[in-house]
Design a protein that fits this description.
By secondary structure, this protein is α/β, with parallel strands linked by helices. It has 4 helices and 4 strands, in the order H-E-E-E-H-E-H-H. The protein has a 4-stranded mixed beta sheet, sandwiched between helices.
């Protein structure tokens, strides 16, 4: 995944809810190592981390606890491996799939 996908995914979540009680977004997959790690999405600071390991995911969450904004954490580990400590900090308390086709479609408005 790259920064364009992350920006649109975060925007989509922000459309659903203006207030996040959790500051971590767990996404399924891997992040492009050449893409930027710090983003600003609609005025909100977003830090992106990629962690193929459980310990790396836990460390990224720990490092982010005192930071401002959101942490988007890419991982291929499932929720059982990540454990309650990581998942409890995540939006929707789980790893979210990224459906690229949903990102590129414009939102449908009721007439």
């Amino acid at each position: 995944m790259n920064d364009v996908v992350v920006r649109e995914f975060v925007r989509g979540l922000m459309r659903q809810s203006e207030v996040f009680t959790q500051t971590v977004i767990l996404l399924d997959g891997r992040y492009d190592p050449a893409a930027p790690r710090k983003l600003v999405v609609d005025g909100m600071e977003v830090q992106v981390a990629d962690s193929p390991s459980v310990l790396g995911a836990m460390q990224a969450c720990l490092d982010h606890r005192l930071a401002q904004g959101l942490l988007v954490l890419f991982t291929t580990r499932d929720e059982r491996e990540l454990g309650v400590d990581v998942c409890s900090q995540a939006v929707k308390h789980r790893r979210l799939p990224v459906q690229r086709w949903q990102i590129v479609l414009p939102p449908v408005r009721g007439q």
